[in-house]
Each structure stands twice: as structure tokens, then as C-alpha cells.
Design a protein that fits this description.
The structure is a homodimer.
Chain A: E1 5-10, H1 22-41, E2 45-50, H2 53-65, H3 76-101, E3 108-110, E4 114-117, E5 129-135, H4 137-142, E6 148-151, E7 157-161, E8 166-169, H5 172-180, E9 184-186, E10 193-198, E11 201-204, H6 211-221, E12 226-231, E13 237-238, E14 246-247, E15 250-252, H7 253-261, H8 270-283, E16 288-293, H9 297-301, E17 307-310
Parallel strand pairs in A: 1-2, 1-12, 2-9, 3-9, 4-10, 12-16, 15-17
Antiparallel strand pairs in A: 4-8, 5-7, 6-7, 10-11, 13-14, 16-17
Helix pairs in contact in A: 1-3, 2-3, 6-8, 7-8
């Protein structure tokens, strides 16, 4: 089989579900790594990206709980960097374990990744992404930290931050060199550390980047052949739960754009995954994007499963 | 000038002194990166390692403050990984800034680093390294977390953890490839994430590894020419503050071993730096180790400063 370059985007919820202990998250990642290893076993180059939603939320809570003049809470860009450290470590350790168990002579590298966003991105005028704990209206009124808080579906108030689009990735060359050199590479954790650029200098910003969009940008920059977006279901559906429900298998970018116009996909859920798949395929004429579940990844590799988006 | 491979070990206290805010730590690292850049400007390959003492201590405090069933405090190996994320990000951003300002066409890579220790290391029977907050005797009595606490010079009780010696470094090949490819590489932050190995599987342990010993091991494995250990003073002294005080400039391993026997160096301060320098030079027949200050690094590069240890 021809060696191809795969990039796989893993959800933060694939790591933390009901048990937030370090032990349980590491165990979940061992299962994940074992399933992902079919790609490595087949001889492909593999880059893995991952979300950090639950983890950065928990870290933010701890930072707030321990906040003092002597030990101030860190800003969001630094917290994303911390979760690249923790989740990256757990994931690489899990990959090392499965590679060893399968007798695959491969090493793993985890690269801190800065993702550049545009300071004029309209997202900065309209923060939408909730982070951190639920607060009461009184608690929010007492805060004067310059942050924006929004009421979240009757559950309380939450801080919201901008979610700008990725423009470029500072470590694209580093990641390309590592994967070319045979290392299984973990990168762009949590959508990347959000930075803006001014005259060659990067500054962290209070924002989070959607991990599927960041992964699509990385897939483009490192010239991946296939971009796999993992989610909870084996396939994308249209007319979901209706008499004419249809499982999508092979679809074109034009098909998907039409379905988006028809509002077939839930915003904040399947929609950004479909958009990220389109983003990559538009930039990679020969590339394909696959949306499927971790459980289905082996069949997706055989071309027998998942929703495959191509030109 | 001949291109050489330098590895520079930076103290955690060079990043956090009196002001613990993210902003102040990033500013301190910008000054540090600017001074370190003389090595890059001179055309050398550069790997930078760093401590994390104050930062991991502060993170541990925040974790304890926010600890709950829903959001449990993370173990020490994971916290070290987090500080590799935060400090690594700050340091690489600072390096990117100085490289851009000086018009040097170099990119920076930060690699999560696992350092393997021996589970039979005697350090595991004698935890000595204090981490985290000072507690009262009553607070310690109330804890039943299996940790060891020791009274610390009348200031209260602190948790102590083992500080085993580094045996190997899982990412040595990754780091070598990156530095060979021209990337300025940040690695082994906080002495590395401590892991033990069993049948190819790595497990994190509750320990911290001395960053100078970890850096010496990395210097050996990546075949560095020169290992620079940065400290608060330009040179190592013997008979310090005595009439026959002597500044050390060019010394051999045998000289240094004799001075150690004479107990010339303070344990927990200059002694581990001298031992790390010896460790490296013993493994690298052509290599040299330099102990000096960040301020003196430019003169050390010219061979006119610092304490230089050679065979």
C-alpha cells in the first residue's frame, strides 16, 4: 500500500468523559492510541491533533480557586499551552505503549504549537465561545476583569471568548520535518495557542481556536493526503431523524456546501467539522477529508467507512 | 568560526523572581532570549533547557486550592508536563521575537520531554526535594495522601518528593533531528517529565529530576560540544569568602572532583551544577562544560569567561 500522510483530529471529549482524574484520562487515551495505531501499523505518516475543552475549563477553575497576588491566575493562551503539555504527554505516552506492544519501531514527538490569528478577525468583536465555570448574575456583577459574560441556556453566566479563524501555524515546518523523519507527531493541541503577529513578534491573545479549523489549516500546510476528523458517529447524515434520512458516504465539496445552505448540520457540533473538511479539500486538490468515529477508523482506512469529502 | 552544538540550561529562577504574573515572566524571558541569541547569531546549533521550580510550585498550589471530586488535582508528572507547556511557550515566543529583531532566519521548536528514571534509584527511599506550600504540623497530620512531609528550617512542613537521577531521555532522537535541521530547540523543561519504564511502557512517577542532571544527560545523548549551565555568578569559586578565595577558570574533571571532596560547593546550589558538568565531560571526551551567568554568556562564547570544565 502507498504511504500516505494522515492527520487525525481527536476531540477533547474523547479524553475526558465522566471521570476527570489523570488516571482515567490516561486510560481513555490508551484505548484511543490503540485504535489510532492501525494507521501507523499500515505504514502511514501520522500527525495527531486534539481538543482540550474539558481540560482547559478545569484548569481555569483551579487557577481561579488559587488566584492571589503571589500566585495570579494565568491567561488563557498560557493555559492552552499547559494543556498541550498535559494532554500531549498523556497521548504520547499512550502512543508509545501501543507502538511497543505492537512491536512497531516508531518514536513519538509532541510539539508546542502556536496558531496565528488575525487581530482584525470579526470574532474579536463578538466573543461566543464559553470557557470556565457557570456563575450567578451577582457573581458576574462583582467581577471587573474586562471579560465578557453571557447567560448560557438558563444554567448561569459564563465567560465567553472570541474564536477567531486560524491564519497560519508557526510550527508547520517543524512538524513537517518530524513527520518526514518518521516520528508520529502530536501537534496543535486545543486548537493551538492563539497568537497575533506584529512585525515578527507574536503575542498571546484571550481566545480559543476551534481544533477542527486549526487541524484543517495544519493539514493544508503540511500537505497531508487525508484529514480525518473524529466524532461520536461513524457518518454524517442529512435529513437526520426524518423519513428521508440519508447517510453520507462519498460526497463532493459542492454537495456539502449545498447541505450547509439547507442548514442540515448543527452549529457548534457537526457544522464546524463539515466546514473544516471543506476548508482542507479546497486547499488540497488531491486530498480527502473523512468524518467518522474512532471505532470506525480501521474501516475508514480501507475506504469502506465514514463520510469522505473530496473535490 | 566552526559551528558547534551548544546546550544551555536555564534556571527556573531566571524566569520568575519577584513578580509571578504571566506578563512579568514573559518579559524576563525576553531579556533572557535576547542574551542567549549571541549563540545563534554566531551560527551555532542551540538547545535550551530550563527549570520550573517556582512555576510548578505555584501550579501545585492552584491545583490544591481547586481540588474537588469533579476536578481533582493532577499528579506531579502531569504538572511538570504543564510547565513544559507554559514556560516552553513563553521561551519560544521570546526566542522568536529576538530572532526576528536580529533578522536571523531561524525557527524554534519546543519538544515535550520524558526523562526515564530507575524505579530502584535509592532516591525513591529518601524523598528530599521540597515541592508545594508550607503547611503547619496540624495540617500535615490531617493529610493522608501517602506523601512524605518534612519540616523545613523552621518555616513549616513541606511535601518532599524523590529526585532520582536521569537514566535516558525518550525524545533524544527527536531533539537531535530538530537541531540538525536548523531549529533552535527547547527541551527537557523542569528536568523532564519523570517516567519509569516497564517492558516498553512508560509510567509517570511522583518525583522531580534536577534540571542540570537532566540537561547533562541530554547533552551526552545529543552529542553536544559544549554544555553551558547558567547560574547567578560568572564563575565558580573555591575557598569562597576566605583570604585565599580563588576564581575557577579552566579546570579539569580531576580538579573538580578534588574540590568536591574538600566540600567546596554548597549542596543544593553549586554542587549539583559542578556534578552535572563533570557528568557530561566524562561522557564526552572532546566536550566542555561551562558554568557562568547569563550576563557573561557572550564572553564565555569567546572563551574569555566562566568556569570551563574539560577532561
Amino acid at each position: 500500500m502507498e504511504k500516505k500522510r494522515y492527520i487525525v483530529a481527536l476531540g477533547g471529549n474523547a479524553i475526558l468523559t465522566d471521570n476527570p482524574s489523570a488516571e482515567a484520562q490516561q486510560k481513555a487515551l490508551e484505548d484511543t492510541a490503540e485504535k489510532l495505531s492501525v494507521l501507523i501499523e499500515a505504514g502511514h505518516e501520522v500527525i495527531i491533533t486534539h481538543g482540550n475543552g474539558p481540560q482547559v475549563g478545569n484548569l481555569l477553575l483551579q487557577q481561579i480557586a488559587g488566584d492571589s497576588d503571589e500566585n495570579p491566575a494565568m491567561p488563557l493562551d498560557t493555559l492552552v499551552a499547559m494543556t498541550q503539555g498535559s494532554i500531549g504527554y498523556w497521548l504520547q505516552k499512550a502512543l508509545q505503549k501501543t507502538l511497543s506492544e505492537k512491536g512497531l519501531d516508531k518514536e513519538v514527538a509532541t510539539v508546542l504549537t502556536e496558531v496565528v490569528v488575525d487581530e482584525n478577525d470579526p470574532a474579536f468583536n463578538d466573543p461566543t465561545k464559553p470557557v470556565g465555570p457557570f456563575l450567578s448574575e451577582e457573581e458576574v456583577a462583582d467581577l471587573s476583569d474586562g471579560s465578557v459574560y453571557k447567560e448560557d441556556a438558563g444554567r448561569g453566566w459564563r465567560k465567553v471568548v472570541p474564536s477567531p479563524k486560524p491564519v497560519s501555524i508557526n510550527e508547520a515546518n517543524v512538524i513537517t520535518r518530524l513527520v518526514e523523519s518518521g516520528f508520529v507527531t502530536v501537534a496543535a493541541g486545543g486548537g493551538g495557542i492563539p497568537v497575533i503577529e506584529k512585525a515578527g513578534t507574536y503575542t498571546g491573545v484571550e481566545a480559543v481556536i476551534d481544533k477542527d479549523f486549526a487541524s484543517a489549516k495544519l493539514a493544508e500546510l503540511i500537505k497531508a493526503d487525508t484529514f480525518i476528523i473524529l466524532t461520536g458517529v461513524d457518518n454524517v447524515y442529512v435529513n437526520f431523524n426524518q423519513p428521508d434520512q440519508k447517510k453520507l458516504e462519498q460526497v463532493t465539496v459542492a454537495d456539502m456546501e449545498r447541505y450547509i445552505e439547507e442548514e442540515q448540520f448543527a452549529p457548534g457540533s457537526m457544522l464546524p467539522k463539515v466546514e473544516a473538511a471543506i476548508d482542507f479539500v479546497k486547499e488540497a486538490p488531491e486530498g480527502s477529508a473523512v468524518i467518522t468515529s474512532l471505532e470506525n477508523i480501521a474501516s475508514a482506512l480501507d475506504g469502506n467507512g465514514g463520510t469522505v469529502v473530496e473535490r
